[in-house]
Design a protein that fits this description.
Blueprint: H1 3-17, E1 30-31, E2 40-42, H2 44-52, H3 56-65, E3 74-78, E4 82-86, H4 89-102, E5 115-119, H5 131-149, E6 153-160, H6 165-180, H7 197-209, H8 218-242, E7 249-252, H9 253-258, H10 261-271, E8 275-278, E9 281-284, E10 295-298, H11 307-319, E11 324-330, H12 336-345, E12 354-359, E13 362-366, E14 369-370, H13 383-390, H14 392-400, E15 408-411, H15 412-416, H16 423-440, H17 456-466, H18 468-477, H19 482-501, H20 510-534
Parallel strand pairs: 5-6, 5-11, 6-7, 11-12, 13-15
Antiparallel strand pairs: 1-2, 2-4, 3-4, 8-9, 9-10, 13-14
Helix pairs in contact: 2-3, 4-17, 4-20, 5-14, 5-18, 6-7, 6-8, 10-11, 13-14, 16-19, 16-20, 17-19, 17-20, 18-19, 19-20
């Protein structure tokens, strides 16, 4: 158990002895910024003083008296009731051996026994990915990796919307481009797809089918729609694979529609009195739960609204035994949350069975001016173009560096720079620097001798390493991959500072050198693992 967890557990038990219930995960514990204030600090006594009907300072002293003697060197009350903890040096140093022994597994949470489905991207297969999809891909994949690291059984899922008007217009647009290949005039409506990427697909169809589809029968148009969806989805899959994103499951709306699950759900709603007819349409009583108004699920012409297949799809996901569904969506889907939660609650599921991760828009800037990079339409920045311009690593780091609910202004100049200001370069360079030092020091080996790491900066690195498991747990519970980005940049900064201020390799001081090498080896392992969670590589040379 890491120091973070040990302290929280001890504090929880101390409060329990005082008759106050405090969950371990609710105990705030922060790394002290100044050595004089110890290694960690907590304001928990101030938070619980009112409940305990005691002065915060008095409560803090009582808590300190109940801490195990072998836990800390000492603890003290500061200010209005903060508790400062000074860890035993050997406890801090122990993290090095733990990291070296466990390697990439360091920080892995205990198996939670819970299955989580994370659905993200789910872009309509009617064209190229844009930067909203890119941000959803980066955050969704990092969140899935983080949850796996924390001990959850995670499935990455992509929902393919291969039905409805957008797919019909894709088929019509592709048919128009197909006819154009035979010298016929191009006829595209306002709602059709004008992107020139369909020209290449139309040429493929001409090569395979000749002029056999020129009649444009219903069967022909269905072929164009299906062929277009398959080709566009294949492009999306490749672009995502190049971005380091892979899915375990692809679920098709067409399969949901063919399965009978929509009709089954509709019949259930009517049987339970959860739906009613109005003006020829059918509405779901979502206001009986969390929604601000009832939602139509069947139009007056008898066709389904998009909400109805989505309900059946979520029922399908839950039928596979997941304990939690997480849907990553653009911020414009904010109103979707209450209605879908309501639909699931109608089937007896708890409100907490579904979570939404919303992410805001992305704008790209070069030299302080917003830029449009699409080579196909000129109207928007395309995912493929940005990744080609600055590389997968920079895009994935910058797109996960901030919480998804904040707007992101992507600085092209910064992403391409090789400086401390570029956090992904700076973090990767720290790993490469550690690898270079370890190679240069051979045949000396990274081996820790107790009591040798006495520099204040060494203590800071040790504390940062020791906090990695707790950071993973907290970030996973808060669904916050950006905390991983902040963590790795902080550790990388400490490594760079250590390198600049300390003589790491001194062959006349073998024991000290090997201890310092062990510290840097541990730091390199954690840096690489943190970067992996973000989908970023850790090159050995830069």
């Amino acid at each position: 158990m890491d120091n973070y967890s040990r302290l929280r557990k001890a504090l929880s038990e101390a409060f329990e002895k005082l008759g106050i219930e405090v969950r371990e995960e609710d105990i705030p514990l922060v790394e002290s910024k100044e050595k004089a204030h110890g290694d960690y600090a907590s304001p928990i006594a101030m938070k619980k003083a009112k409940e305990a009907k005691k002065n915060p300072v008095e409560l803090a002293r009582e808590v300190i008296a109940l801490l195990p003697e072998d836990l800390v060197e000492h603890a003290e009350v500061a200010g209005p009731g903060f508790i400062n903890f000074f860890l035993k040096k050997e406890d801090l140093e122990a993290v090095v051996g733990k990291v070296l022994a466990e390697g990439q597994a360091f920080g892995n949470g205990e198996k939670k026994g819970k299955k989580i489905d994370v659905e993200f991207v789910s872009a309509n297969p009617t064209g190229d990915l844009h930067l909203g999809h890119t941000r959803g891909a980066a955050i969704g994949d990092a969140l899935a990796a983080l949850l796996q690291k924390a001990g959850y059984d995670v499935t990455r899922e992509y929902y393919v919307n291969d039905c409805g008007n957008q797919v019909r217009h894709l088929g019509l647009s592709l048919y128009a481009r197909y006819k154009e290949q035979f010298g016929l005039p191009l006829e595209l409506g306002d709602d059709d797809y004008h992107g020139e990427d369909l020209i290449a697909i139309a040429k493929e169809i001409k090569e395979k089918k000749g002029d056999s589809l020129l009649a444009g029968t219903d069967e022909d148009l269905a072929f164009f729609s299906r062929y277009g969806v398959d080709r566009e989805l294949a492009k999306i899959k490749k672009d995502l694979a190049d971005f380091g994103v892979h899915f375990d499951v692809f679920t098709y709306e067409s399969d949901i529609r063919k399965s009978g699950k929509i009709e089954e759900a509709l019949a259930y709603f009517k049987e339970k009195g959860l739906a009613y007819e109005k003006d020829g349409a059918v509405y779901l009583k979502t206001t009986s739960y969390l929604d601000d108004k009832d939602r139509p699920i069947v139009k007056s012409d008898g066709s389904y609204t998009y909400f109805m297949p989505d309900i059946a799809y979520h029922y399908d996901k839950l039928s596979r035994g997941y304990d939690l569904l997480i849907d990553m969506l653009g911020a414009d889907h904010h109103g979707y949350l209450a209605r879908m939660k309501s639909a699931l609650m109608m089937k007896g599921y708890p409100e907490s069975i579904l979570e939404f991760g919303l992410y805001q828009i992305v704008r790209v800037y070069r030299n302080g001016v917003e830029v449009k990079m699409s080579k196909r339409t000129g109207k928007a920045v395309a995912h493929r173009d940005l990744v080609a311009e600055v590389g997968k690593d920079a895009v994935r780091y910058f797109f996960t560096e901030r919480s998804g609910d904040t707007h992101l202004d992507f600085n092209l100049d910064l992403a391409l720079s090789k400086s401390k200001e570029n956090p992904v370069y700076y973090s990767q360079y720290a790993y490469a620097r550690c690898h270079s030092l370890l190679t240069l020091a051979e045949p000396l080996e990274p081996r820790l001798s107790k009591g040798t790491l006495v520099l204040p900066l060494e203590g800071e690195i040790l504390k940062q390493l020791a906090s990695f498991p707790a950071m993973i747990e907290a970030a996973s519970e808060q669904r916050a991959p950006h905390k991983v980005a902040g963590y790795v940049y902080r550790l990388a900064s400490l490594v760079h500072e250590y390198y600049a201020s300390t003589r790491i390799i001194d062959r006349e001081k073998k024991e000290l050198t090997e201890s310092r090498l062990a510290l840097l080896k541990a730091a390199s392992i954690v840096i690489k693992e943190a970067l992996r969670l973000l989908g970023v590589s850790a090159p050995e040379k830069m």
